[in-house]
TrEMBL record:
<dbReference type="GO" id="GO:0005524">
    <property type="term" value="F:ATP binding"/>
</dbReference>
<dbReference type="InterPro" id="IPR003439">
    <property type="entry name" value="ABC_transporter-like_ATP-bd"/>
</dbReference>
<dbReference type="InterPro" id="IPR027417">
    <property type="entry name" value="P-loop_NTPase"/>
</dbReference>
<feature type="domain" description="ABC transporter">
    <location>
        <begin position="4"/>
        <end position="239"/>
    </location>
</feature>
<comment type="subunit">
    <text>The complex is composed of two ATP-binding proteins (XacJ and XacK), two transmembrane proteins (XacH and XacI) and a solute-binding protein (XacG).</text>
</comment>
<dbReference type="GO" id="GO:0016887">
    <property type="term" value="F:ATP hydrolysis activity"/>
</dbReference>
<dbReference type="InterPro" id="IPR013611">
    <property type="entry name" value="Transp-assoc_OB_typ2"/>
</dbReference>
<keyword id="KW-0547">Nucleotide-binding</keyword>
<keyword id="KW-1003">Cell membrane</keyword>
<comment type="similarity">
    <text>Belongs to the ABC transporter superfamily. Carbohydrate uptake transporter-1 (CUT1) (TC 3.A.1.1) family.</text>
</comment>
<dbReference type="GO" id="GO:0008643">
    <property type="term" value="P:carbohydrate transport"/>
</dbReference>
<dbReference type="GO" id="GO:0055052">
    <property type="term" value="C:ATP-binding cassette (ABC) transporter complex, substrate-binding subunit-containing"/>
</dbReference>
<keyword id="KW-0472">Membrane</keyword>
<dbReference type="Pfam" id="PF00005">
    <property type="entry name" value="ABC_tran"/>
</dbReference>
<comment type="function">
    <text>Part of the ABC transporter complex XacGHIJK involved in the uptake of xylose and arabinose. Responsible for energy coupling to the transport system.</text>
</comment>
<keyword id="KW-0813">Transport</keyword>
<dbReference type="InterPro" id="IPR015855">
    <property type="entry name" value="ABC_transpr_MalK-like"/>
</dbReference>
Length: 359
């Protein structure tokens, strides 16, 4: 059983610039054999979290368990984890085969023939048998990435850690490698933690995503749950492209209105008795142009961006800018007045002060 559990994990960096809490009270469980993705914007603490699990960074507070062992004070080699980095970190003078066998050789306990057999087996899985005698400078980016993956997996680690492993590949190769990684994960069943800043990659790759911001966990859920039931405004805006439109409004009594229509009533007083403001969230694909819905308004078209399979429309609705993802058949011109509508069920509501979702 190789479950990874983080309990109250924090990381504080102290350097000449001062003190920085890069990871703050992180609680997370990655189940045995699960493929989990940690996602968040640059600087949110993803790499630091992964490096603490690998043992490449000390833990300031909290505990990390791999299986039934508490590991935060163990050396990296004692944790039986393997990490793949963004820049591959291959040895330039060694062939693909030597790069892959290096860790095995270093660990000892295997004859040369056994090592060769392991490497060949893994190379077959990764479909790189034909480049095993090449050195990294003779390989393409995708091939280097496969050798780096092979070098990590060949040691049969309990946990496989990947830090933005596909970011140096072009878009086509990246999507190919995404599927490849999922296939490898299915074949080997190793508990895998994958870090990316790319929300699309996170949503497509795993059945479980953990969204971080500012060192704090915002939500851990299935991609579908995080997308359709964001825990807070940050998650709502972070997932989805183009981003969720947001409109801040004050609450009149207990009534919230959008586009001049009442949306419902909420408890409008905070703990201090003040009326609180709300933020409406409207996803670009939920706004319909040219038809009335539960809530509708007249909008003026400011810009139209052709996307091939559809159009992005930039609208001004009651002095608020909105982006709409429209089908190819809906292609108004800048300056046109159109009807924009949305169903009540598709309107997200957040507390403007705390950012928390209001149900
Ligand atoms: P990116 O996607 O840009 O790699 P990230 O989400 O992986 O970002 P981290 O690299 O974990 O974020 O960094 C989190 C915060 O900790 C950042 O503010 C960063 O500047 C800071 N940080 C990271 N490493 C160190 C270090 N060795 N010393 C001081 N501060 C650091």
């Amino acid at each position: 059983m190789t479950r990874v559990t983080l309990e109250g994990v924090s990381k504080v960096y102290n350097d000449a610039q001062g003190t920085e809490r890069a990871v703050d009270d992180l609680n997370m469980t990655i189940g045995d054999g699960q493929f989990a993705v940690i996602v968040g914007p640059s600087g949110c603490g993803k790499t630091t979290t992964l490096r603490m699990i690998a043992g490449l960074e000390t833990v300031t507070e909290g505990t990390i368990n791999i299986g039934d062992r508490e590991v935060q004070d163990l050396a990296p080699a004692e944790r039986n984890v393997a990490m793949v980095f963004q820049n591959y970190a291959l040895y330039p003078s060694m062939t693909g085969r030597e790069n892959m066998a290096y860790g095995l050789k270093h660990a000892g306990g295997m004859s040369k023939d056994e090592r060769d057999e392991h490497v060949t087996e893994m190379a077959e899985l990764l479909e790189i048998t034909d480049i095993l005698d090449d050195t990294p400078d003779e390989m393409s980016g995708g091939q280097k990435q496969r050798v780096a993956l092979g070098r990590a997996i060949v040691r049969e680690p309990d946990v496989f850690l990947l830090d933005e492993p596909l970011s140096n590949l072009d878009a086509k190769l990246r999507s190919e490698m995404r599927r490849e990684l999922q296939r490898i994960h299915r074949d080997l069943d190793i508990t895998t933690i994958y870090v990316t800043h790319d929300q699309k990659e996170a949503m497509t790759m795993s059945d479980r995503i953990a969204i971080l911001n500012d060192g704090r966990l915002q939500q851990a859920a299935s991609p579908e749950e995080a997308y359709t039931q964001p825990a807070n405004r940050f998650v709502g805006e972070f997932l989805g492209s183009p981003s969720m439109n947001t409109v801040e409004r004050s609450v009149d009594g207990e009534t919230v209105s959008l586009f001049g229509q009442e949306l419902g009533t909420i408890d409008s007083t905070g703990a201090d008795g003040r009326v609180r403001n709300v933020v409406f969230g409207l996803r670009p694909e939920d706004i319909v142009v040219g038809e009335s819905r539960d809530l509708s308004a007249t909008a003026s078209v400011t810009e139209v961006e052709y996307q091939g399979d559809g159009n992005f429309l930039f609208l001004s609705v009651e002095n608020t800018d909105m982006t709409v993802r429209a089908p190819a058949s809906v292609r108004p011109s800048p300056g046109d007045l159109v009807t924009a509508g949305i169903d009540r069920a598709n309107v997200y509501l957040f507390d403007a002060d705390s950012g928390e979702a209001i149900s």
